[in-house]
Amino acid sequence: MTARHLIEVRDLTFGYEGRPLLFDGAALAIHEDDQIGLWADNGTGKTTLLRILSGLAKPRTMTLTLDGRTITDEEGFRSVRRHFGFVLQNPDDQLFFPEVLDDVMFGPLNLGLSYEKAREAAFAALAELGISDLANAESFRLSGGQKRLVSLACVLSMQPDGLFLDEPTAGLDKGARERLTHVLQGLGGPRLCVSHSMDFLRAVSNRLVTIRDGHIAALDFDGSGHFG
Fold first, then answer.
1. 119-155 residue pLDDT tens
2. Ramachandran angles phi, psi of 201, nearest 5°
3. Fewer beta carbons under 10 A from the terminal one: N or C of the chain?
4. How far is it, in rounded angstroms, from Cα 39 to Cα 167?
5. In sequence order, what E strands does the chain have?
6. What is the pLDDT of residues 89-101, one digit of tens each?
7. CA–CA separation, 173 vs 74, rounded Å?
8. Domains of the chain: residue spans and CATH
9. What distances in angstroms separate CA 226 from CA 40, 188, 212, 215, one per listed residue?
10. Rounded CA gap, 99 and 134, in Å?
């Protein structure tokens, strides 16, 4: 059986004023069993693509569907964000409360879980990432790598169907990076992960893509590219 397209983007055109287009008629389909790794040079649009898919940046043209439904407005993008947890490149943008546990509980509480269920989900996400000891830590005192793991815990606590990850290993030491790799390898569901590390993407992905000449191109696992 062919896997269904959970998210499909076609005819994506995007550029900043006075600069060459980042995307010019680009297309990408994320199937329900895809763990996609996106590697490309700096400035080619990796983060911008995640922002577009999450509704945080508006392209000049695009047709976007989620599970066969065309997304055209903010309500539709909220649906995308409910299905896909979005881990930002700057973790400070996802941490709002003085204590880590409050940050990780915030999403489940917003989804309507009781305080006890939200607390349970938060501790489960922290434990999965090996950072339960940070539950009562002050968010502003965390290192950059710790903040990155906590921001991922904030998303995992909501148990999304899939993930958009923007440079999740940045600032992580070797042990934390290995722990994150192990966690991602054990997660099912669709995923689009942006990273400058090809070794990391090979470890956590079953499909690799890049951005070339305004299009999204397939990459072989040896790093050689061809248009898919």
1. 999 999 999 999 999 999 999 899 888 998 999 999 9
2. -65, -40
3. N
4. 10
5. 5-14, 23-31, 35-38, 61-66, 69-71, 84-87, 162-166, 191-194, 207-212, 215-219, 225-226
6. 888 888 888 999 9
7. 37
8. 5-223 (3.40.50.300)
9. 13, 27, 10, 11
10. 9
